[in-house]
Amino acid sequence: MKTQMTFSDIEYSKRKRVSRREIFLKKMDALIPWSDLIDIIKPYYYSGKRGRPPRGIEPMLRMYLLQTWYNLSDEMAEEEIYDSHAMKEFVKIDFNEEDAPDATTLLGFRHLLEEQALQKKIFHKINSILESIGMIWRGGSIIDAAILEAPSSTKNSNKSRDGEMSQTKKGNEWHFGMKVHIGSDAGTGMVHSMTTTSANVHDIEEAHKLVRSDDEFANADAGYIGIEKREEICTDEHLSKVTWRINTRKGKERKLKDKLHKNAMSHLDYIAQPRWEERIEYLKSKVRSKVEHNFYIIKHIFGYRKVRYRGLKKNEARLYMLFAMANLLRFTWRCKSLGVLAMA
Questions:
Q1: Which residue among 59, 85, 116 closes a domain?
Q2: 302: closest CA among 175, 180, 138?
Q3: Rounded to whole angstroms, how far apart are CA atoms 287 and 269?
Q4: 45 and 188 share a domain?
């Protein structure tokens, strides 16, 4: 770990402009509860009694987070630490004393996290901290799903596509890959639960897994119409009492507008009519839009538009870490809007 500033660090600190990458990394470095996350990994980490001494947990975790945020391969994560001063500073490596962990070491660390499902534990730990400071509320959830594309090419050693991925049609386009289903807090929009399936599984089939035990209502888009009639909802004591606020299909909304316009005596009469149904749909959509921000962060800020690995398990582990970091990023946005500078 880095102990003192070098001449290169001193020269770098004299810059007139700080990059967005460096601002982001410093912000996340200050927010992440490092000691709590290290305590989660420590019981499963290498003891060092055999073979060469293992690298410390913290620099490996920092390197893994860089890989997650910038959607890097193991080799590229190693390259970027040598190439980017901001990333070197984040990992806290002093090249006078040690080299950056190599790609094979990062691969072993990532496999350890995946085998022990530690990304899921980290996700829940960060959520518990956010809930304790009032950034995750209770009472209602928003449910949604998104498709993540997978390579459809068979030009590989097995001459086949990923067997755990599947094909589905959305609109007029076919997609091959997986689906990520999330439940987010209706108050703040932060993700509290997640499941993954192949792309051909309908959104409604995973909905009952995404509602918390104390939720009184759940918002969802038109793809979840009829959910209150499903067996897993009707037979569950809690879910059968949840109020399902489902948006109407767009085609039905257009028919309603045409009917009102047809029955109106004039255009002024149409404008004067109280259109309560439109107002209700608007309010439903206003609440439900909060869940879309999470997919925006994952796909556009963290760049995870396509799956990185074969199989659902590895991609699910990556998504748990991505959504944990997305919640922290949304926390910074909320603090900025409220004028709060640091975590309480």
A1: 116
A2: 180
A3: 30
A4: no
Same domain? For 284 and 246 the reply is: yes
275 DSSP 8-state letter: -
Q: How far apart are the first and last CA of the chain?
A: 27
- Separation CA 149–CA 199 (nearest Å): 9
Please state whether beta strands 140-149 and 217-220 pair in parallel, antiparallel, or not at all (unpaired).
parallel
| DSSP, res 298 | I
| Predicted pLDDT at 43 | 95
In a domain, 121, yes or no: no
Q: Can you point out the beta strands (E) in 171-288?
A: 173-185, 191-198, 217-220, 243-246
**What is the distance between the alpha carbons of residues 276 and 92, in angstroms, rounded to a whole number?**
58
Task: Write the pLDDT tens digit of every residue in 187-232.
Answer: 999 999 999 999 999 999 999 999 999 999 999 999 999 999 999 9
User: Which pLDDT tens digit goes with each residue over 285-341?
Assistant: 899 999 999 999 999 999 999 999 999 999 999 999 999 999 999 998 887 765 554
Give pLDDT tens digits for 240-277.
999 999 998 766 656 665 665 556 555 555 554 556 67
124 in any annotated domain: no
Same domain, 152 and 244: yes
Number of domains observed in the structure of the chain: 2
Question: Domain containing 318: what range?
Answer: 138-338
Same domain, 23 and 172: no
**What whole-number distance in Å separates Cα of residue 243 and Cα of residue 147?**
26
pLDDT band (50, 70, 90) for residue 10: low
